[in-house]
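Working notes for the structural subgroup meeting. M.R. asked for a predicted model of this chain before we commit to crystallization trials. I am recording the input and output together here so anyone reviewing the notebook later can reproduce the run.

Input as submitted:
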Amino acid sequence: MTLLLAAAAKAATAAAKGAPLKVLPPVQNLVVPPAATQPQTVFQEHFGWLTHGIAGIFIVAAIALIVLLAVQTTKQEGLSGTIGGRVESAYSRMGGEEQLKRLTGFTAVVFVLTGFILSLTGI
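Returned structure, recorded in token form:
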């Protein structure tokens, strides 16, 4: 540190006396080492748009799954609902609750599959 201060003081006195400063030649072929980063997978290097798209689908599926699970209501809670059960016809049209259950199941499958694919891509 003292060597650096001494050089700075010498340069300042030389500049004050009017002596010309030394100009160093430009450095040729300067190679800057890359920053320390994690090694990238093939998907991250060549298909970044794909991994980011899948990550977007993953986030949308996660939010949709939270909303769908929050909206659902339980009709029969506890042991009495499990034992007694509900009489349903197998041939009737699906009601709103059944469609909501099916949509929730589909969203859960999309969420799990995109999470699995993202874990393989290394993102």
